[in-house]
Amino acid sequence: MPSAQFIKVYPENPAPRPLGIIADCLRKGGLIIYPTDTVYGLGCDITNTKALQRLAQLKGIKLEKANWSFICPDLSRLSDYTRQLDNPTFKLLKRSLPGPYTFILPGNNDLPKVFKKKKTVGIRVPDHSIPQAIVSTLGNPIVSTSIYDTDEIVEYTTDPELIYEEWQNRVDLVVDGGFGGNIPSTIIDLSGDGPVVIREGKGSLDVL
């Protein structure tokens, strides 16, 4: 299997050319690793079923059982995937995003076919220029999951060159956006009667 592409993207000013290469890779069903405002993520185009199946296989899970986040550029497309949100929920999202949070929201009937049976979706709007630019260039969200280190002590690898070494034969492209973080997002479930913290990560709970 050929080695993945390794592409440098500068967070201060993500250039159109590398972004075009990344979006093209995603459209063709590629798996990419890219930086976020928390840890490096592994993702693919939400509309590409073959890519979703590859991602599930790589993670060792059944696609229909996968709990992945949808990386969105902002809140404007939320209604594409979620049911009508009440005012307090929308206000909470507005004051928290972009930011290091994953919000679990009730899904709607327009979810991609492979996610039709899911009652909820995890939404991420990272406070990081690179994933925002990638999904904006692609034109739709990417499905994302964190990459874990094989080292039992270091849970998340932060150095993109080390990530590339480890993953180059399993993915199609690794984005070098500089050193990443090692604290995952805070996960808050908003699909029930009130906010439920599933995992406390980088995002402060003061937003609740």
UniProtKB/TrEMBL annotation:
The protein's matches in InterPro entries, at most eight in alphabetical order, are given as: DHBP_synth_RibB-like_a/b_dom, Sua5-like_dom, SUA5_domain
The record ties this protein, via Gene3D superfamilies, to: DHBP synthase (3.90.870.10)
Annotated YrdC-like domain residues: 16-203
Highest taxon listed in the record's lineage = Bacteria
Question: Which GO MF terms does the UniProt record name?
Answer: double-stranded RNA binding
- Which residues does UniProt call coiled coil? none
Under PANTHER family, the record lists: DHBP SYNTHASE RIBB-LIKE ALPHA/BETA DOMAIN-CONTAINING PROTEIN (PTHR42828), THREONYLCARBAMOYL-AMP SYNTHASE (PTHR42828:SF3)
Q: What is this protein called?
A: Threonylcarbamoyl-AMP synthase
Give the source lineage, highest ranks first.
Answer: Bacteria, Pseudomonadati, Bacteroidota, Flavobacteriia, Flavobacteriales
